[in-house]
Amino acid sequence: MMKKLLLIGASVAALCAAAPASADGNNQSNVNQTGSAALATVAQTGSNGLSTVNQGGASNSATVNQSGSGAESLVLQDD
Hints:
Mean pLDDT: 79
Low-confidence stretches: 1-22
């Protein structure tokens, strides 16, 4: 069985930031996982970000990095 890795981001620069974010607001993330051995990581900086991750099946992995204003992402995985 092949593991899935999905990287979605409005900006990869969020990974390189050394200082913690401050004064961010109105970010929302919904993560729903069924099955086994699922992993989801969501990092949001900025404002009004929306992220939804739905994973089913086994051994799915999702990483979402968002920054700026109004970033949106949707990840759906089944196995």
